Request: fold
Amino acid sequence: MPWVVLLVDLLPSTHRSAHWDVAWGGFDLALALLLVSVGVAAWRRSAWLEGAATAAATLLLVDGWFDVLTSSGNAELALALVMALFVEVPMALLCLYLARSAERRLAYASGANRGFDESRTQDGASRAAASNVAPWSARARTSSSRATVKAPVRRSA
Reply:
């Protein structure tokens, strides 16, 4: 990443912007809308939660980074550090936790954690799958509906 070294060397350390307030206001509005979408997706247990929470975590970390680096004066720097350490970074970690939990929940629901494709077993599918009962549910694990799942059939090339 030599371009990073080049940017650090070539870019000025200060820059004036005519629309600084609009840029930060727009960024904060986008972040707020994204956080609302994370809340709605979590409440509805939506598949969108993973992406929205990851995007929100990214924007929270970027917000904290730029707040700290663009602060001018000791009081502003202290406030930016407190906000970053006690608000933005913890919220970003929470969003990443939500995203990871959503990923695991979706993987579990899709059966990706079972380790094999039931359609490739010798008997085709378990009784639980045939009766439209999720194989990981409590009903599928009871003795009355327990199915014998055989090892996957290996096909030679």
Q: What stands out?
A: Residues 120-147 have pLDDT under 50 and may be disordered. Residues 114-151 form one domain.
